Amino acid sequence: MKKLYFVILLFFILPVSAFANTDHLILVNLTTNQLSFFENGNYTKTFPVTTGRDRTPTPEGNFCIINKYKNKEYHRKK
């Protein structure tokens, strides 16, 4: 039974860590609404961003970007 739990745990952990790239880091400051970008541990640039409101707050935590679409169109849900 312990082996089954271990295999299930690996199934959920490995996909995220396999794609993780530690050369780039994005930090979002929810207080100042700023995104800071770091490359190879060095600060690169800060951008203004919009974060969530009280009813729909921005999720907090550590996340890994798995897919990136260049110049993707954005449409609001109606």
TrEMBL record:
Superkingdom of the organism of origin: Bacteria
Pathway per the UniProt entry: Cell wall biogenesis; peptidoglycan biosynthesis
GO molecular function: peptidoglycan L,D-transpeptidase activity; transferase activity
Family annotation (CDD domains): YkuD_like (cd16913)
Keyword Transport on entry: no
Coiled coil: none
GO BP term, example: regulation of cell shape
One GO cellular component, as annotated: extracellular region
Keywords assigned by UniProt, alphabetized: Cell shape, Cell wall biogenesis/degradation, Peptidoglycan synthesis, Signal, Transferase
Residue span(s) of domain L,D-TPase catalytic: 24-78
Signal sequence range: 1-20
Alphabetized InterPro entries for the sequence: LD-transpeptidase, LD_TPept_cat_dom, Transpep_catalytic_dom
Pfam families found in the cross-reference section: YkuD (PF03734)
Transmembrane domains' residue ranges: none
PANTHER family: L,D-TRANSPEPTIDASE (PTHR30582), L,D-TRANSPEPTIDASE YCIB-RELATED (PTHR30582:SF2)
Name assigned to this protein: L,D-TPase catalytic domain-containing protein
UniProt source species: Bacillus anthracis
